[in-house]
Specification:
alpha/beta, 8-stranded mixed β-sheet, 16 strands
Length: about 425
């Protein structure tokens, strides 16, 4: 627990900084509660309003989270402490979410021209190729631009359109990167449960009964469940969203073509504010920090305008490399093979788990979502058996316990062994429940 003597200062800025220092130095850790406001104010000899303002600053920075009656606590993941301990050598990493390196294209050697100040913001050929992809996926006509990764684009859009306190509808379970961005921007997440076909119609309708500023959805390879919006579900959701044309609609296509599922968009021509973000991290490699996005003209103008004030542009070396890879027929064949391979590995694990009576989901993408009665014990037990997986707690909002397993490099024979190990961990619980 974070003791009061970790806090110091007589202004809200200094008090907030003392909490951050405690994190840097290891005197505070993820999950620690902050002390109550009034006793802390008395200890520091400041007003309760000053301490409350300090805690509010920390919430706005994504360092802490208000946890109802339990008060304010340090978030599990914060912008202050981001390092993670390396896994032991004998442990297979099924947690990080990386694609299989053997299914990524070789980057080769290119000779791009140096981009100088005052030149074009984005590579024209990359924009043309991206526009052709969006047209093929039925995404309404719009402007196209380039950002550094999917989350970079999403964060910029939220910053430009929303204000602290706005309600944002998200999937449940939800990708941790989205949750962290919402927390850092002091936006309020509204959970909508997903099944294998994407957002549940009835749950989204309930969420829309109250005013919301934005909806963030993953049409395929939903992280962590692997859900993919079906054509039927997309028609239902578009009809529902027709009554909310001013809702900011954000579609995150982080896996792209290697997801193994068609793209069914929720964007309709009648929608006024929207963006479709497509990253190359899962298909071409995480180190290629490039994402393309299509959006309405106002959103493009706001995001690019803000971009020119900071990073200015995404490296044209990277843009040219992505455009070159997209043009090659060998890349197209490799991406098709990657999609087929990931689909086979998902199916192998789901089938192996089914043989032991274990429920799992994974309609697309690189992950499988496995229901468990309790997470922490299972995660520790699998680690002892040589498997690193992610506990579902970081993804879930109101949904039941589960674990996320990345199958990108999991061979079928390994999937069978993993299923046996998980079944062995679950067996004592099953016998206890029967008794």
């Amino acid at each position: 627990m974070l003791e009061r003597n970790y806090l110091s200062g007589h202004t809200s800025v200094n008090i907030a900084a003392s909490v951050e220092r405690a994190l840097w130095t290891g005197r505070a850790a993820a999950g620690d509660p902050l002390p109550p406001i009034r006793p802390t104010a008395a200890h520091l000899r400041v007003s309760p309003a000053t301490v409350a303002a300090a805690y509010r600053l920390l919430r706005d920075r994504g360092v802490v989270i208000a946890d109802g009656r339990r008060g304010t606590r340090i978030r599990d993941t914060t912008p202050i402490v981001t390092s993670t301990a390396p896994l032991p050598e004998n442990v297979r990493d099924l947690a990080t979410g990386n694609p299989d390196p053997k299914l990524l294209p070789r980057l080769g050697t290119i000779r791009p021209r140096q981009r100088l100040y005052g030149g074009a913001l984005n590579d024209p050929e990359l924009l043309s190729l991206a526009r052709a992809q969006f047209d093929a996926d039925g995404i309404p006509p719009g402007d196209v631009a380039v950002m550094s990764g999917a989350l970079d684009g999403i964060e910029r859009v939220l910053r430009e359109h929303l204000r602290p306190g706005d309600r944002v509808i998200v999937e449940d379970p939800c990708f941790t990167g989205i949750s962290d961005i919402l927390a850092s921007l002091a936006l309020t997440p509204v959970a909508v449960v997903v099944d294998d076909e994407g957002l549940r119609f009835d749950a989204l309708r309930r969420a829309l009964a109250r005013p919301a500023a934005a909806l963030i959805v993953t049409p395929r390879a939903q992280n962590p469940t692997g859900a993919a919006i079906s054509a039927r579900r997309a028609r239902q959701l578009r009809s529902l969203l027709r009554a909310h044309p001013d809702l900011l609609l954000i579609e995150d296509d982080h896996a792209g073509v290697v997801s193994g599922a068609p793209y069914n968009t929720l964007v309709a021509p009648s929608h006024r504010r929207w963006i479709v973000v497509r990253s190359v991290s899962k298909s071409l490699g995480p180190d290629l920090r490039v994402s393309v996005f299509a959006a309405d003209p106002l959103t493009i103008a706001r995001v690019e305008g803000r971009q020119t004030l900071g990073s200015r542009w995404v490296s044209h070396v990277l843009q040219r490399l992505v455009a070159t890879l997209w043009k090659h027929a060998t890349t197209t064949r490799l991406l098709r093979r990657a999609a087929d391979t990931y689909a086979a590995r998902r199916s192998a694990l789901i089938d192996a788990l089914a043989c032991h009576g274990i429920e799992a989901r994974g309609a697309s993408g690189l992950n499988v979502w496995i229901s468990v009665p309790e997470e922490s014990t299972i995660v520790r037990g699998l680690l002892d058996r040589g498997w690193a997986v992610n506990a579902g707690e970081r993804y879930r909002i109101d949904t039941p316990p589960a674990i996320r397993v990345t199958v990108a490099s999991l061979q079928p024979k390994d999937a069978a062994r993993f299923a046996r190990d998980l079944a062995a961990l679950l067996a004592p619980r099953s016998r206890a429940s029967v008794a």
